[in-house]
Design goal:
With about 375 residues, the protein is of the alpha/beta class. Helices cover about 30% and strands about 20% of the residues. The chain folds into two domains: about 300 residues, 3-Layer(aba) Sandwich (Rossmann fold); about 50 residues, SH3 type barrels (Roll), CATH 2.30.30.30. The chain has 13 helices and 14 strands. A nine-stranded mixed β-sheet has the order 1-2-3-5-4-6-7-8-9, sandwiched between helices. Helix 2 packs across helix 3 and helix 6 crosses helix 9. The N and C termini lie far apart (about 65 Å).
């Protein structure tokens, strides 16, 4: 095993901050955080660790966070399919397992998006002791899998198989990839995947385009489009022995939430969060919402106590919003605690603001004030 600092690219200096050598191949990854439970973030098809750029700094405040580029994607090597490596979930699962052992150095929470979810589950099934928990964000349902295709109407079933066969012709497949790997085409595809189009930025386009220019990128793309075997999510979910949480952007046009809801039946699944109005990549489209859900669930399962003030009914607090998605309009107001939850606190707020709900990290305990201006009716 070799871990080195990468020479940064002049165009994208953060494209490959760290390099780990795996089976003779260069694997890029990012890391943040010095303490807390280990978390490994696994991207989806065609993406890279940078698809987690909005999550890594936040999670790194209380966790040791790692985000890697799967072999064939991002800044990692792209060896020739079949001749040098098989691009399968078994391969990627082994990569994640070895990464946990050799780089992370301990068991970790595995968090995936899209096909990254299947990779996370494969790694957790193959070596359960390395997975403390699994979180799935809009898990790929693998709708082009042979067994899935059997469920399609006859015309669609024949058409999808015919397309895969055509793309196996190398010259035609590469020409198709060149048409797909264009900024305008990538933007149109993302406009389908993201409900909030403002999240489809020039930065995001370049994050996806930069590795697509690498030698071998087209062959990896075509190899995966032809990959219609391997495990389905429902093959792996019953075999998970670690706690599992599922987050699903309900506006995903590719992976219908109606199918995802069926995953709640499996014993390992402890939590299912419906993210209304969010598309296929919640971690990038709605990071403020996803970050707190991820952090709280991971710290809860890890048994790590969050740095929240100890409060009881009747205590007095002042409001000082620190969360990036909080509303600072309440800052400086005082209130009396009416109810205390696991994370949320109900306050009766001064100056006629009535009953409001806040998160504990946005509150600071104070001594009881001498006078408070309540509602005009005295309530």
């Amino acid at each position: 095993m070799t871990v080195t600092a990468a020479h940064p690219s002049p165009a994208l200096p953060t494209a490959c901050p760290h390099v780990w050598t795996w089976q003779g191949h260069r694997i890029c990854y990012q890391a943040a955080g010095e303490a807390g439970p280990a978390v490994v973030l696994i991207h989806g098809f065609g993406a890279s660790w940078r698809h987690w750029r909005k999550n890594i700094p936040f999670l790194g405040q209380q966790c040791r966070v790692f985000a890697l580029d799967l072999i064939g994607f991002g800044g990692s090597d792209k060896p020739a399919p079949d001749r040098e490596i098989a691009y399968t979930f078994e391969t990627w699962g082994q990569l994640v397992r070895d990464f946990c052992r050799e780089v992370v150095g301990e068991s970790a929470f595995l968090v995936g998006n899209s096909i990254g979810c299947v990779v996370a589950m494969q790694a957790a099934v193959d070596q359960p002791e390395l997975a403390r928990g699994v979180v799935l964000l809009n898990c790929s349902l693998r709708l082009l899998h042979d067994r899935r295709r059997a469920e399609l109407p006859w015309l669609k079933r024949v058409g999808s198989g015919y397309l895969q066969q055509i793309l196996s012709w190398q010259w035609l497949g590469r020409a198709f990839f060149q048409q797909i790997a264009r900024p305008d085409t990538v933007r149109k595809i993302l406009y389908q995947a993201y409900r909030d189009r403002s999240a489809v930025t020039d930065e995001l386009i370049e994050i996806l385009m930069e590795p697509a220019r690498d030698p071998g990128a087209a062959d990896v793309f075509l190899a995966f489009t032809r990959y219609s075997q391997g495990p389905l999510p429902e093959d792996l979910l019953p075999r998970l022995t670690c706690p599992t949480a599922i987050l699903w952007g309900a506006a995903d046009p590719w992976e219908p939430i109606e199918r995802g809801l069926a995953f709640e039946q499996y014993p390992a699944v402890e939590k299912f969060v419906n993210l209304e109005g969010v598309g296929h990549c919640p971690q990038d489209e709605a990071p403020k919402q996803v970050n707190y859900i991820l952090r709280d669930w991971i710290l809860w399962k890890a048994g790590a106590k969050q740095q929240h003030p100890d409060l009881a009914i009747g205590d007095w607090v002042t409001i000082a919003v620190v969360r990036p998605d909080g509303d600072p309009i309440w800052n400086g107001l005082r209130g009396q605690v009416q109810q205390v939850g696991d994370r949320a606190v109900t306050l009766r707020v001064e100056r006629g603001q009535g009953i409001r709900h806040f998160y504990r990290e946005d509150l600071q305990a104070i001594d009881p004030p001498e006078a408070i201006e309540w509602d005009k009716d005295g309530e």
